[in-house]
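Structure (tokenized):
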């Protein structure tokens, strides 16, 4: 019985048997490219986005 609980506990503590850890460099690349795209678009749309936010808040506020 003790061995069964030990095996159950090790299932949650031990890493899986496969060596696949995910595509970390791919996710980093996607994150950096997304941040660059947002930053680039923000340069062109900053004034318009600020005015849209101001108009929306003024309509909600009354």
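Design, position by position:
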């Amino acid at each position: 019985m003790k061995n069964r609980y030990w095996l159950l506990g090790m299932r949650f503590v031990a890493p899986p048997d496969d060596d696949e850890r995910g595509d970390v460099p791919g996710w980093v690349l996607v994150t950096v490219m997304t941040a660059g795209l947002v930053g680039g678009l923000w340069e062109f749309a900053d004034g318009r986005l600020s005015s849209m936010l101001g108009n929306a808040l003024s309509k909600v506020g009354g």
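Reviewer-requested clarification: The mean pLDDT is 79. Helices lie at 2-13, 24-61.
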